[in-house]
Sequence to fold (158 residues):
Amino acid sequence: MAGIPLPEAQAVGELLGQLVDKEVVVEKCPKVDARAASPTSVYVGDDDAVRALCVCELELAAHLGAALGMMPVGAAKDAVAAGALPEGLQLNFREVMNICAAMLCANGSPHVRLLDAFPSQEAAGAAAQKVAKSPAKRVDYQVAIDGFGGGKLAFLLG
Fold:
C-alpha cells in the first residue's frame, strides 16, 4: 500500500477553484510559519491516529470561507482584523478542508478523513502539535483566490 501523497499545486488549485467557482492560483513557496495560532485541519486514518495536517494562515482560511459562502470579501477582511473566524466562515472553511481530504486519498493510499478544522494548533491537540513540529513530509503553497485574497497553507504528513 502506498503512503499518503502530498497534494500537487495543480490539484490544489483545481479543487479549490471548483469549490469556490473562482480562479485559484497555487504556487510552491518557502515554509509557512505554522504558528500555534494558525487554523489547523487534522486528518486521521481509520485507526483515528493523526496522519496529516493542513495548516493555513488565517487570511487564507477567511478568504476560502468567504468565497465558498459567496460572502463579500469584507467578511474575510473583518475576520482577519478580529484575529479569528466567525462561526459562518469557520463552518465554510471546515467544509473546504473536508473536501480537501480527497487529495490525501489517491492511488491506493491509506484512507484519511477530516477529524475537524480547528481554530489553532493548540485546539487541535497534542498529536497534531507533534506532527506540526516534526512532519515526515510537507509541502507549502501560496494560494491566491481571484476577487478575494489569499495566503499560505502547508500540508504536513505524520
Remarks:
- Residues 9-157 form a domain with the Chemotaxis protein chec fold (CATH 3.40.1550.10).
